[in-house]
Amino acid sequence: MAQFIYVGLFGEDPPVSLAAFASEVTTTRRGGALIFYGFGVGAVFAFAAFAISVFSFPLLLDKPTTLITAVSTSIRAVTSNFVVMLIWGVIVVALLAVGAGLLLIGLAAVLPILGHATWHLYRKVVEI
User: Is residue 128 scored above 80 in pLDDT?
Assistant: First the structure.
């Protein structure tokens, strides 16, 4: 997708240099469009991955179920609680960014907390 967006905005020619590309992206209208469309497509892919996996992993660990059932249950749970899950996704991204920003040492604290919180969220949302 990134290649399609780039070619659609800048054409087939590769950038002359990294500095020229950075200048083009940060100072032109096409560069702003590249950032805007890239962010939008990335957000869609990230939310799709989130919706597929947020409850399917805990469900597979908790109950004897198939992968298809777990994924469809996860997607259904996310779509029926869209605003709450969107907020949870933002919280996850923020905490992971803070943990990674602390030279990855912060992840030693953030990941268990997120895992525990996700387990409790799963137990509240998914009732099988």
Answer: no
